[in-house]
Amino acid sequence: MFVLLVRYKCKQGCRERYYEAIRNNYIDELSRSEEGCVRYEYSFGIVEDELILTEVWRDEQAIEVHKNSDHFAKLGELKTEYVENTEIMKFSAEQV
């Protein structure tokens, strides 16, 4: 199992608009419905203009399928409009 923690540093004043665009394009719902997705959820960071995405995937293959999806491509388009910087941390984990 793999855990990805994604930190989006949004352009000033764009965090809520970015999150709304994600939801309006069903990116969160479509990602959660993918085979191999254990968890996919957004939260607001404690730092202003920060959006946090927590992803848990069954295996590398599920991540690759996700990265090749249309909604992942759409997320990339939205990032261009709303996001200043993205940091990604990836961890291997086992369920306890």
Quick overview:
The chain is an alpha+beta fold. Helices cover 39% and strands 36% of the residues.
Strand-pairing-aware structural class: alpha+beta
Largest sheet: 4 strands, antiparallel
CATH fold field value: Alpha-Beta Plaits
Instruction: Provide the spatial order of strands within the biggest beta sheet.
Output: 2-3-1-4
Which assembly state applies to the chains in this document?
single chain
Radius of gyration, CA atoms, in whole angstroms: 13 Å
Task: Characterise this structure.
The N and C termini lie close together (11 Å). It is built from four helices and four strands. It is globular. It has a single domain (2-91), classed as 2-Layer Sandwich (Alpha-Beta Plaits). The longest helix is centred in the last third of the chain and has 13 residues, at 70-82. It has a four-stranded antiparallel sheet with strand order 2-3-1-4. By secondary structure, it is an alpha+beta fold. A hairpin with a 5-residue loop joins strand 2 (37-44) and strand 3.
